[in-house]
Amino acid sequence: MLSENIESALNKQIRIEAESSQIYLSMACWAESQGFEGVAEFMFAQADEEREHMLRLLKYLIERGGKAIVSELSKPTTEYTSPKKMFEEVLEHEVFVSNSINDLVSITFDEKDFATHNFLQWYVAEQIEEEATARTILDKINLIGDEKSGFYLFDKDVKSMIAKKPAQ
Ligand code: FEO
Question: What is the mean pLDDT of the segment spanning 68-88?
Answer without folding.
Answer: 96
